[in-house]
Amino acid sequence: MRQTVSKDFYDLIIKHYPMLQNNKSYMKFLQYRLFSNNWEDERKSLIKVPQFNLAYCENKLHLLKAKKYCGRTFLEELTPIFNLDWLDDWSYSANKCRVVGFKLPDRIDFELIIDGHIGRGKKRVYLVDGLLFNTRNRKEKINEAEKLLKEDKHLEWLASHRNVRKHVRKLFNYMMKLDPKHFIKIVDKNLEKVRTNIINDTHLIETKRKSYLEMLDCIEEECKPMYQGTVNSWRLFGQGQSILGLPREYRKQLCVGWTEFDMKSCQLSIVSVIWNIPTVRKFLENGGDVWDLFYKTFGVREKAFFKQTLYSVIFGKSEERLVQLYDDTLGVGAGAKFSNLWLIRDLLEAREAEINRLANVPDGKYRSPACIGKVQPYFFTGLSKKQKKEYNGTMPYGQRKRITSAMAQDVQMIEIALLTPIIDLAEKNEKNYVITLWQHDGYSVKFLDASKRDKYTKVIVNDFNRNLERIQKNYPIPTYLEYEHIL
Fold first, then answer.
1. What is the pLDDT of residues 175-193, one digit of tens each?
2. Which of 403, 109, 147 is nearest to 275 (CA)?
3. 437, exposed or middle or buried, with CB in 10 Å at 0-12, 13-18, 19+?
4. Interval 48-62 mean pLDDT
5. 3-state DSSP percent of the chain in helix, strand and coil, to 5
6. Per-residue DSSP letters for 218-286?
7. Which pLDDT value is given to residue 390?
8. Sheet of strand 442-447: strand arrangement
């Protein structure tokens, strides 16, 4: 979420809401209204306000985790200030949050609409406290954000839910220790060039151009990506907008001099083994490239779209919705091509077979074989008591969702077991290189001495191969580590 605005816009806000000048909690709530995109309706008149966001604004996340936080109290305090319109109609158990009507004063709304990149220019300040945006304050804000994440103990809390999450904790600690200077240097050197390229890219639709430019503003403010975990995933995710969210072509323009490492067809390789899909496994073992298969089938090189939809198959999205997505994106008939592609057909059949298997494990408790720690995790994949009473022969949506979540975590556990040994290696070689970005099935590396880049690239690849051979004793995954030096 954007942190800075122009000094004129800041003064306009203080003019309308003078009580915000010395209250960071109130200003954070306004910041959420101005720059988040968590809308309930298409007209953007009703904004979702989860308990987490309210607790964050008040700096009371510790109370939220202790289940002692009351968001209603804060909303009642905010209502006369911002003239909010809301009902206390929410349910934690039903995953339903409050929805708030928050109409901005006409002048503020007008300025926000006509300048989608508020905050750029010489007179630029941080919205929450009015501090000038400069090199010193930016560094302090980055350090402050890191401190908050560390004090939050978010990964410690996740680890307490499943002890085998120690790999995620190790990864989080490494990424948070990184010196911001590695990011500040490339942002200050290359960001304006990337911004110019986005503005001049005639192939971009206007909504994407606006989104990418806003992302660059956020990257310029924070530079270093921050990470967070979630309860039902073994992955770390970027927090907010950062370099991690840039499309690959723009990320490469920004991160000149770094090297990108990726596991070849990572998720597809893993499920070809754990779901027992011999056709897919053989295709990959023989050097088949899944993206070339998609390019030849559809006649367009839309890797980002193909990657998104392939992973959607793996992580449980329905065939009907994917078919519709292809028809909407690539034209009528593309959905049928997608559905009839041999790889997709074999994937879907194997996925449904695995879903049915997990639905019928004894006592509804699935013990994952993809154990990467001392504790073997298990997932409840059976019918709840209520679902048993209402069962009509069709698998309930809630049960299917639990099962596909367990299946996704199986893949993620193996994925992280393949990659996280690189953290130990990086710590041993801290004088030679640092891992700068973590992207689930790959990572970026900055070599501190460019003349030794090839030498330590071999060190990284050889270490990955040794770990892969160890894991292949149980899971003969047909993958390898690719890399590209960004020049």
1. 988 999 999 999 999 999 9
2. 403
3. buried
4. 89
5. 60, 10, 30
6. HHHHH-S--EEE-TT-SSEEE-SSSGGGS-HHHHHHHSTT-EEEEETTHHHHHHHHHTT-HHHHHHHHT
7. 85
8. 433-438, 442-447, 259-263, 481-485
